[in-house]
Write a structure and sequence with these properties.
Arc Repressor Mutant, subunit A, about 45% helix, about 240 residues, alpha/beta, 9 helices, Helicase, Ruva Protein, domain 3
Length: about 240
């Protein structure tokens, strides 16, 4: 697997690897349309395409609201899923490549690397070098589905930084500094889910609601700390943490 340097960190998630592999395989195209929801990183992808395909010479970067009606020799366009069809039909399909940006919930393997990078940047901007997320803080970030994608993640990390400063945390951001938007403590399960999937959801959400306090989580779950630790290690190896 190729290690893609994308933006400021290396991509880890398999779904994003597939997106980049498809892009590089179609780097002879003239028209690139980046499709995705708000906050999925369309602007970053525009700049990446400009760099790897056009050697930073492409000046025709648009969103769907600014797309001109006259013919263009080449173009990179960002659009929403709702507007994608109208934009796509403007170009010759033979020379067009569509990049569909996955939601952050599909890119959990990239959350930790991005979060650590973003916290490092915030720290440098505020003269707080060496500030880092603890392991349990990273676990908490990975247990959330990020409906607001990268915009929400950045906002949460900025707030976590502020909370850490208020708490006079010298060098770490702890789980209790991270405020996530959850409206319910109820779990949703569907018929057909395997028992191990149900167990994993229950354990991870329990950890989330007790701010990664493993002792408290083990008490609620009715298992030993050792069993819980083994489960966490298993989920980490399987890519859920």
């Amino acid at each position: 697997m190729i290690n893609y340097q994308y933006g400021s960190f290396q991509i880890q998630s398999s779904v994003m690897h597939q997106v980049l592999e498809a892009l590089h395989a179609n780097n002879d195209k003239k028209f690139f349309i980046v499709v995705g929801d708000v906050g999925t990183g369309k602007s970053t992808m525009l700049n990446y395409i400009n760099k790897v395909v056009f050697n930073n010479t492409q000046t025709q970067l648009f969103d769907e609201t600014g797309l001109p009606t006259d013919a263009l020799d080449s173009v990179i366009v960002a659009t929403s899923k709702e507007s994608a069809y109208e934009v796509i039909r403007k170009f010759d399909k033979k020379f067009t490549h569509i990049v569909e940006m996955p939601a952050l919930s599909e890119r959990k393997a990239d959350v930790t690397a991005f979060a650590n990078f973003f916290i490092e940047v915030i720290g440098l901007m505020n003269n707080k070098k060496g500030l880092r997320l603890t392991e349990k803080s990273c676990e908490k970030l990975l247990q959330y589905n990020w409906p607001g994608n990268f915009h929400e993640l950045e906002s949460v990390l900025e707030r976590a930084f502020e909370n850490a400063q208020t708490a006079d945390s010298k060098s770490t951001i702890e789980p209790e500094h991270i405020e996530l938007n959850t409206q319910t403590k109820q779990l949703e399960f569907s018929i057909g889910q395997k028992l191990d999937e149900v167990e994993r959801k229950y354990i991870l959400q329990t950890l989330y609601f007790v701010h990664q306090n493993r002792t408290r989580a083990a008490e609620i779950l009715g298992i030993s700390i050792r069993t819980l630790r083994n489960k966490i290690n298993q989920y980490r190896e399987e890519g859920y943490l």
